Every structure is written in structure tokens, then in C-alpha cells.
Amino acid sequence: MKTTPNFHPKNKHKSGYDLDALCNVYPELKPFVFENRHQTITIDFAKPKAVKALNTALLLKDYGIKFWEFPEENLCPPIPGRVDYIHHIVHLLKTVKEKDAIKILDIGTGASCIYPLLGHAEYNWNFVATDIDEKSLKNAQKIIDKNKLQDSIVLRHQKDSSQIFNGILKEDDAFSISICNPPFFNSEEEADEATTRKLKNLGKSTDKLVRNFSGTNTELAYKGGEKAFLHTYLYESSLHKENCEWFTTLVSKKDLVKGMQKSLKKLGATEVKVISMGQGNKISRILAWRF
Asked: What CATH number has the domain spanning 75-290?
């Protein structure tokens, strides 16, 4: 693979994958590796099992995560893009007062618990991670326990799916920063339409829709879509401005940023930043703000 210029300089995957090395540490990846018509050694990124095996191998080889199992229907996060978010927020933390005790709030950690795993592996950060799905949290706890990370990662259940910070934050909580990868779609049907487009771009059949990164409805969709979720996030952050020094989120749709900046100004944010970043084959961005 060619170097991906959008990835952060500290991203271990900016120059692609060493599939031989990955297969050596995780032999389960071998069946999915092949030489394509361009004489390039690769995997079939349209197959969920191949994608999961690749990302499991990356976690084991580059981050020392020895156990990473979750149900097939749950979202399989692409490690290069997820760790890029972690690297990009480091410079924000230079302004945090308690530099020796970085504590991160992860909104919607999912069954894979991916951001806490990567943040702890790369920077030794501590995390509180939330989710609305109890089954996902149960699986995430298993990953935490198997990797002996109970002292570094704590989970909390958000019982109200319409809320983000409300009902989760305690009065004395003090976080360095919050992070979030929001649901991008308004419905499962909209997610299926995106999958169809992706399969066509990969030159694959669309007769049977299979999301290569999988994902449940609660992971992918939110009533009102990404825009509704993010504006709830912005509003609730203004109600809990004392609990986090910085708030951040990924924003997939560029045209949402200006509206969010205007909303944050009305809510009293004192500083707002937009950080461009790579997310695999697409460009995404992080919106960061504080009060």
C-alpha cells in the first residue's frame, strides 16, 4: 500500500500494512490474504471476516491487545482511522492543567471498546467509556478484563438513548477531554444505501448486502441522523462545561461544521477548532471546543 498522506505522522499505519508480519503474529489472517490482478498482496476488504481478522492482527502486533472478540453483527472499527483520532487530540491536551493524570470520556464505546484500548496503549491514558447498549458494554468489559485493563478503563451505561452526557456524568467528574464517533445515519435503511454505494465502488455484487465493517442499528443510526446527534452533543456539553476541559467529536459531513460553529458560539464556547484528518479512503474532521 502507498503512504496515506492524511494520516497523522505518529500513525503506525501511515505506510500501509506488512501482511507477512501480521500473519506471523496472527495466523488466522492468512486465509484472507491473496494476490490481486495488479500483483499486489492484499485482503478482500468487502468481506467482514477478513476485515475483522486484519484489525485483530493490527491490535495484537502494534498495540499488544491479546484479546479482542465481539459478536459478528457489531461494528468492526478500522484501527488506522481510530488511532488517528487519538493522535490528533494530543496537542489539545497540552493545554490541560493535570498533564500527569489524563482522563478521557469516550461517548459510545461499542462492543469493541476501541478508543480506550488504543488511547491506553499509545499514551497510557485512563478512560471512562459509555454506551446505550448493555450487551455491548458486557462484551467491552470482557475485553477489558482479558487484557487486564480494569484499573485504566471503566464503563458506564447510558440508560436514555436520547441523552449523551445527562445521566452519565457525576457532579465531581473531571475529564481532560471527551471523544465521540457519532452514528452517521438516520436509519438502518440509510446505512444500507451507503453500503450499496461502497460495494459498487469496490466492484462487488449488491445482490446480498453485507457491511464489510458490520454494525448494529444502534451503532450506525440515530433519529435525525448525525446532525441531530451532534447538536444534542453540543447543547449538553454546555450544561456540563465544568466536567471536561475539551469536548471533541468526529464530523463526517463537512457541511455540518459551519452550523455547529454557530451553535457553539451561541452556547458560549470560548474556543473552537476544526482538525482535518484521514479516515481510511475518505477525509473526515474533528470538531473540538471548550468553554
From this structure: 3.40.50.150
